[in-house]
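Exercise 7.
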Amino acid sequence: MFNFIQRISNRRMYTLISLLLACMGTNGWAQTDWPKAKPVTLLVAFAAGSSTDIVARNLTQKLGEITGSNFIVENKGGAGGNIATGMVKRAAPDGYTVLVHSVAFAVNPSLYSEAGYDALKDFIPLALGPKTPNIFTVNPNVPVKNLPELVELAKKSQFNYASSGIGTTTHLSMERLKTAAKLDIVHVPYQPAAAINAVVAGHTQIASTSMPPAVPMIKAGKLRALAVTSALRSPLLPDVPSITEYGYKEFDDYTWFGFFLPVGTPQAIVDKFNAAINQAMESSDTVERFAQLGMVSSKNSSAEFGAFLRAEVPKWAAVVKSSGAKAE
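Solution. The predicted structure, written as tokens, is:
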């Protein structure tokens, strides 16, 4: 009788284990072995040379060193980042495809009539990357040395300004300035990597961009910096005033960068991936490189990034509404 009961118990245990393994499938394997199966693709929402691309490429080698695996960058620019976002939304939730995006991720659902995703429901916020103030610059041939002089001249002349794209905070920052100063400056959106070049070449007189692509041109004398859009000056350009110093209140606009995974990615992978990104961002050479570009980062969990995102989405929705900005 004992042997009979034991055989039944063994069969039940075998069946239970088989069922558990079948349910776990590849996800159970991935939870244990990620990221050993294949290279991890960092799908960047903008073109090569953009600030988002710079962030991804600065972290790729470190992530490989930390995990012992391969990380590759793939650029899928277009539609303000919505093309790459849609691709990652549809990707397998196995930790091998991660979206690298900017603050535009939080802006686009209110900017586009059909962005194709819900910023708070369709993705797991993996980690918040570095952030950088936006900056207003002009071609050196524009006869102004500071922001008040530009405002006065813009009221008498027809100027254009380049931004890193419709709905980016670089676009919205200048639109806020235009509203506050009652200016009529024509917006010319570019791909992020091309906006600075447009001003350097004289195709537009003004640029509103994040700092990374602007700083080298400023230091080379090819651009003149007028103001940063953060409440305080940037340590990287301590001689450039903040916009609040000129009396424009409630300006503290940043371009931030973040990493996102498709909904359904196992929590074990999220935790492991988040730890690797934080370790990469905290390495001394990465901190130094980001600082050279006017970027700062801080350690954060997936949950903390999620809380940050829940505040950012309505904040920028309000700015989009007040500015009247729309993209199709």
